[in-house]
Amino acid sequence: MADIIDGKAFAARLRGEVAEGVAAFRAKSGRAPGLAVVLVGEDPASAVYVRSKHKACVAAGMESFEHRLPADTAEAALLALIEQLNADPAVDGILVQLPLPKHIDEMKVIEAIDPDKDVDGFTIGSAGRLATGQDGFVPCTPLGCLMLLRDRLGDLSGKSAVIIGRSNIVGKPMAMLLLRESCTVTIAHSRTEDLPSVVRGADIVVAAVGRPEMVKGDWLKPGATVIDVGINRVAAAEEGKTKLVGDVDFAEAMETASAVTPVPGGVGPMTIACLLHNTLAAAERRETIG
Ligand code: GUN
Question: 121 — alpha (psi -120 to 50), left (phi > 0) or beta?
Answer without folding.
Answer: left
